[in-house]
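Review session, final week

We close the course with one last complete record, chosen because it touches almost every idea we covered. It is Kinase-like protein, a protein from Aureobasidium pullulans with 298 residues. Go through it on your own first, then we will talk.
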Amino acid sequence: MADPPTDISPFKWSVSLPYFDNNDPLINIPTKAMIHASQDIIKESMTSKVVGVGRQFVVKYGRGLDLIEGQNAIWVATHTGIRVPKIYALYEDTEDEIKYIIMERLPGATLEEAWPSISNAQKEMVCVKLRNIMQELRALPSPGGYCSLDERPLPDGLMHFEGIHEDPSIISGGPFATEQDLNRAILQRAATFHEHIKGKAKFYERVFPEVFVNHPPTFSHGDFQKKNILVDFLDGGVDVALIDWESAAWWPSYYDYSTALFGCHRFADDWHHWLEKVLDPCLKEAPWVLMLINELYY
């Protein structure tokens, strides 16, 4: 694992698109035909598909894909010692508008797959590694507000909406200079695009200034769940990697814990207990985030 560089200028840096890693001439990235012919389906959704291609590559592709996922992964790998899949290519096919992220296939299993069968000692080992990872991630300096890489708008999450609006300020995802500005935008979107919570938005307007205050912009994974953590148990140790970086951004400091708690779903196992060993609990904020996410998405 590489040492993190000491000179970080994060907010004006990202790889240009299309991107191809040409540093290793022995690497032959898979062709479109190889990708679409793969029967090794790892995950599939309405907007994208993830497949394995041979023993070396994983490819995520689809029209609904945002290539900032790969840009985020490259940026984190460049500016920290956190293990992420190496990105070999990021591009869009201009004919069919399908986007591709071609990345390294890392060894191991997701923590979601491994969790039921590992011991408490192994869980402790994983959580120590994860706490170090998250502390390093959260130390990455913000450009001064709440935003994505290169001061781009925040991704979905609490900014979720479906529809169009003639007022660009309502559909803007930032960047936001203050937490108050972000809170106002979240509630404005909720009231505009979610008919069923228009009345409740007034209640949120009273509550948010009391709950969501004094949370600095903190670089967050954005979807910190067991399914997005890879573990590879070795003799006496474990390698840990984070995948799926599409939601990463400078969110308020409560965001990763609150959304990770949401990812516990029915709390069918003890992950929520161990989660507090990884991220400092935000018990005041998390219930409100969970309530809002449920209303925005379900």
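Two points worth writing down before the exam:
The longest helix spans residues 120-138.
The chain is about 35% helix and 15% strand.
Good luck, everyone.
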